[in-house]
Design goal:
alpha/beta; 2 helices; 7 strands; 36% strand; globular
Length: 119
């Protein structure tokens, strides 16, 4: 029996960036709201800095090699309903987003790619 594919996964580039951000900022978390423009990009914050609540879903606690604690990945419930049939792949691309995500000063931004579950 094979285990199901993870709901959220990281590319090697995203994992490397998370290691650098963890060294600079301490434990980390992601939140993806589903707003327009960069609001739909995954935002990386120090763990606990973004307040989650009943309108959010914890999708994953990501194990990152070289990071002592898991990186939590939260999504708004409304966005989760839209993307419930997908696997989310967190990647990094060049360019600055317009949010408060920790990677902004690095000249890169996190980006969510998606794949239908089962593909």
């Amino acid at each position: 029996m094979t285990s199901p594919a993870p709901r959220v996964e990281l590319t090697p580039a995203a994992a490397e960036l998370l290691r650098r951000l963890r060294a600079a900022h301490g434990p980390l978390m992601f939140h993806q709201s589903g707003g327009c423009c960069d609001g739909s990009a995954p935002m990386c914050y120090p763990e606990g800095e973004f307040r989650t609540g009943d309108s959010d879903v914890l999708l994953a606690s990501l194990a990152v090699e070289g990071v002592d604690e898991p990186v939590t990945f939260w999504m708004s419930k409304s966005q989760h309903e839209v993307w419930s049939h997908t696997r989310l792949i967190i990647d990094v691309v060049e360019g600055r987003g317009s949010g408060f995500s920790l990677e902004a000063p690095e000249g890169v931004r996190f980006l969510t790619r998606s794949r239908l579950v089962g593909t």
